[in-house]
Every structure is written in C-alpha cells, then in structure tokens.
C-alpha cells in the first residue's frame, strides 16, 4: 500500500506478532495506521454466542483498520495475527501528516477504502439475499479477481474461513462446496477448491 521507506521516514515502527496475538480490540480507540509487512491478519467480530464473522483478511503490503482514523471513532472489529506477522505501525498524527504531504498516497488510500466499501456492499447483499452456493462462489470469484484472475485459481482459505467470511456455518459451506463441484462450477483437487 504505502511505500515502507515513506512510512519509516515518518517514524513508523515495525512490530512483530506471533500467531494469535491481538493487534487491537473492538471498541478500542484508533491511534495508529497498520500495514502488513509479512504475514496475515484477520479483522473479525464475535456475536453473543461466540460465532465469528470475519470482516477482512489482510496480507503482505495491505493496510487495515484505517476507517476509524478518518472517522474518529473506535475500532468496529478486532484484529488478530493469523500467522507470525510483521506490521508497520504509524501514529495517527504522523499518518495524517504523510497524507497531507503525499497526495499520491492519499489518492491511493481513497481508492483502497472505496474498494473495501464496494466489497462490504456486495457482501451485505450476498448475506441477505442469496443461497449459500451463490455466497461461496461470490467470495471465491472476488478473491480470484483480487489475485489477478488466474485461469486455475486455488483458494487458500479453509472451509471455516469461507464460513466466517460469508456468515455461514462451516457445515453449510461444506455442502455448498460439494454442490458447486457437482454443478461443475469449481473443482476439488487435493482437498483444495479451484476455480
């Protein structure tokens, strides 16, 4: 997202987290810009029954948790390391100074946030209207497009992660995946989904 050299020029620091470490918690005050250097982070909410809903997964070069910085509200979700991860962390004041002095970065940030809003709108529609097979296929196609639309795309998510991203139960995802395979909309190779 933002060139690491620029971030370090504004006194960002690199923080190491191990799998399972909480980076920030829901309702915590937003004070930092976060960008994944290496590894993977998940933002999620838990309902009253402990069911998890994944808001997003972020990997090398991607930033997360920015809307509360712009809107001056608390984090609406928690973020956790789902692998060992290095994160570049920049204070809010320095982040806004960087954006003010680098219009190209500001423009890039606006485009990223717009894509995320589009994704959220798409997922809200999927969750409220469509059957499980359609929801699973939509998330697969979204990831495939995000990764450059390869001819044979291998989904790196587990069935549980797909469930968390679509608001479905893992059992429902398993049934939907089997149905999609029968309908020849996906292939299963070595237990991995391909599209």
UniProtKB/TrEMBL annotation:
Where in this chain does the record put each HTH crp-type domain?
130-195
GO CC annotations on file: cytosol
Recorded hits in InterPro entries, A to Z, give:
cNMP-bd_dom, cNMP-bd_dom_sf, Env_Response_Regulators, HTH_CRP, RmlC-like_jellyroll, WH_DNA-bd_sf
* A GO molecular function held by the record: DNA binding
Outline the extent of the Cyclic nucleotide-binding domain: 17-116
SUPFAM superfamilies linked = cAMP-binding domain-like (SSF51206), Winged helix' DNA-binding domain (SSF46785)
Family annotation (PANTHER family): CRP FAMILY TRANSCRIPTIONAL REGULATORY PROTEIN, LISTERIOLYSIN REGULATORY PROTEIN
Q: Which UniProt keywords apply?
A: DNA-binding, Transcription, Transcription regulation
A Pfam family this chain is assigned to: cNMP_binding
Name of the protein in question: Crp/Fnr family transcriptional regulator
- The domain of life for this entry's organism is Bacteria
Please tell me whether the keyword Membrane is annotated for this protein: no
């Amino acid at each position: 997202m933002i060139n690491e050299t620029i971030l370090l020029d504004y006194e960002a620091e690199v923080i190491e987290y191990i799998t399972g470490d909480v980076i920030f918690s829901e309702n915590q005050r937003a004070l930092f810009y976060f960008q994944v250097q290496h590894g993977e982070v998940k933002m999620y909410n838990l309902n009253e029954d402990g069911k998890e809903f994944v808001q997003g997964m972020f990997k090398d070069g991607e930033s997360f948790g920015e809307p509360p910085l712009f809107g001056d509200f608390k984090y609406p979700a928690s973020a956790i390391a789902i692998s060992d991860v290095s994160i570049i962390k920049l204070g809010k004041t320095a982040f806004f100074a960087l954006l003010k002095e680098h219009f190209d970065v500001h423009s890039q940030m606006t485009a990223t946030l717009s894509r995320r809003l589009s994704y959220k709108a798409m997922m809200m529609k999927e969750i409220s209207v469509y059957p499980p097979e359609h929801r699973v296929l939509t998330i697969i196609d979204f990831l495939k497009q995000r990764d450059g639309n390869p001819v044979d795309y291998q989904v790196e998510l587990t069935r549980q992660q797909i469930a968390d991203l679509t608001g479905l139960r893992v059992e429902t995802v398993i049934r939907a995946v089997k149905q999609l395979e029968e309908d020849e909309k996906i292939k299963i190779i070595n237990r991995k989904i391909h599209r």
